[in-house]
Write a structure and sequence with these properties.
One of its GO terms (molecular function) is ATP binding. Keywords: ATP-binding, Nucleotide-binding. InterPro entries: P-loop_NTPase (IPR027417). This protein has 246 residues and is α/β, with parallel strands linked by helices. It is built from 7 helices and 9 strands. The strands form 2 sheets. Strands 6-7-8-3-9 form a 5-stranded parallel β-sheet, sandwiched between helices. A 4-stranded antiparallel β-sheet has the order 2-1-4-5. Strand 1 and strand 2 form a beta hairpin. It is globular, with a radius of gyration of 20 Å.
């Protein structure tokens, strides 16, 4: 009897066991040109990982791809143990603080936003009344921590920027999925508020894996698990990917 073996191809690759993200040669093309890649990326489970890269369509598109909101043009991407299955990753993740996905109208109040989210998540046959302060506290308390909760009837657009971002995270994160992606971290100009936002993400990272992005250097005491320097790998990208390329 002759035994035969099948040689593995030279480009054979398996995701790293126990990792949150394993990406090999992933790339994305938009309707008007190349956006990013090919690039490799490995992210461990748990805690907060910061992708250090300039703001732009390329960084936004990468964040969206990592949580199943955008299909790649090439390469292989494993997230939460699912290889090249964006729909499955979509169902097991949340994303917030990206205007392309969760922008809030200036005329929306905190009460309206929280009520609408509760109605969206409830069975179609269940009536959901407008929330009061306790409803806002239940949805937002874990995300806000020691940061004061927003006033019930305040317009979201009038809130301080830190409260706006924490509110959007809380609304997106009601299911507490395994993966939470947060964009626009570097929009906060105030160093103290930026540090507070990172502290809140680190707290969430005790129960979830959190991925965010920042162009600025991080303080030494942020408590993030890892910073992945992608300044040489991600440029501004093609803004067309955020319109026609979804």
């Amino acid at each position: 009897m002759v035994e035969t073996t099948t040689a593995e191809p030279e480009n054979f690759w398996e995701p790293i066991p126990g990792s949150l993200v394993s990406a090999r040669a992933i790339e994305l093309d938009g309707p008007w040109g190349h956006v990013f890649g090919p690039l490799d990326l490995d992210i461990d489970e748990g805690g907060v990982t910061v992708l250090a890269a300039q703001a732009g369509a390329a960084r936004t598109a990468l964040l969206m791809a990592l949580c199943g909101r955008m299909r790649l043009s090439g390469g292989s991407l494993t997230v939460l143990g699912h290889t090249d299955r964006p729909a499955t990753v979509f169902a097991q993740s949340a994303i917030s603080c990206l205007n392309e996905l969760d922008d809030v109208s200036p005329s929306v109040t905190v009460r309206d936003l929280v009520t609408e989210q509760l109605r969206w998540e409830s069975p179609w046959y269940k009536m959901v009344s407008r929330v009061h302060e306790d409803g806002v506290a239940r949805m937002c308390g874990e995300v806000f921590g020691d940061v004061p909760l927003p006033a019930l009837n305040a317009f979201v657009d009038d809130l301080p920027e830190l409260q706006q971002l924490l509110l959007r995270i809380a609304v997106a994160n009601t299911r507490r999925p395994p993966l939470l992606v947060v964009g626009r971290l570097d929009r906060i100009a105030d160093d103290d508020e930026r540090h507070t936002l990172l502290e809140r993400l680190v707290a969430l990272g005790e129960r979830q894996s959190v991925i965010t992005a920042d162009v600025n250097p991080l303080p030494l005491d942020t408590g993030v698990r890892a910073v992945v320097d992608m300044h040489g790998a991600l440029g501004a990208g093609d803004i067309g990917v955020m319109t026609e390329g979804r």
